[in-house]
C-alpha cells in the first residue's frame, strides 16, 4: 500500500510539472507572438509612418475579428499593434 501511495504522489507531481511546463510554453508563445507583432509594426512604421501603422492594425482587426470566437494569437497581434501604435502616437504628440 505504501508503494501505491508513493506512485500516486509521484504521478500527481509529474502531472503538475507537465501542466506548469505547458503553461510556461503557452506564455512564451504569447510573448514571442507579441514581439513579432511589434517587429512587424516597426517595419511598417519605417516604410509608411503612423498612417501605415494605423491602417495595418485596422486591417488586422477587419480580417481577424469576424472569424474569432475567443482571444486568438491573431487577435493578440492586432491588439498588440494597436496598443503600440497608440502609445507611440500619444508620446509623439505630447
Structure description:
By secondary structure, the protein is an all-alpha fold. The protein has one domain. 88% of the residues lie in helices and 0% in strands. The chain has helices at 2-64, 73-92. The longest helix has 63 residues, at 2-64.
Quick overview of this protein structure:
This protein has 94 residues and is an all-alpha fold.
Secondary-structure topology with pairs:
Blueprint: H1 2-64, H2 73-92
Helix pairs in contact: 1-2
Structural class: mainly alpha
H-E order = HH
The number of strands is 0
Rg (C-alpha, Å): 21 Å
Percent of residues in β-strands: under 5%
Output the number of helix runs.
2
- Shape descriptor: globular
How many domains would you count in the coordinates? Answer: 1
Intertermini distance: 70 Å
Main β sheet profile: none
Mean pLDDT comes to: 79
Ranges with pLDDT <50 over ≥5 residues? 1-15
Helix content: over 70%
Keywords:
mainly alpha; globular; disordered N terminus
Amino acid at each position: 500500500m505504501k508503494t501505491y501511495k508513493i506512485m500516486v504522489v509521484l504521478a500527481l507531481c509529474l502531472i503538475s510539472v507537465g501542466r506548469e511546463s505547458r503553461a510556461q510554453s503557452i506564455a512564451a508563445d504569447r510573448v514571442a507572438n507579441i514581439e513579432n507583432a511589434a517587429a512587424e509594426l516597426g517595419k511598417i512604421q519605417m516604410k509608411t509612418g503612423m498612417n501605415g501603422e494605423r491602417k495595418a492594425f485596422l486591417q488586422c482587426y477587419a480580417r481577424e475579428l469576424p472569424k474569432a470566437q475567443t482571444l486568438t494569437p491573431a487577435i493578440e497581434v492586432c491588439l498588440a499593434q494597436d496598443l503600440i501604435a497608440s502609445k507611440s502616437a500619444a508620446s509623439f504628440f505630447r
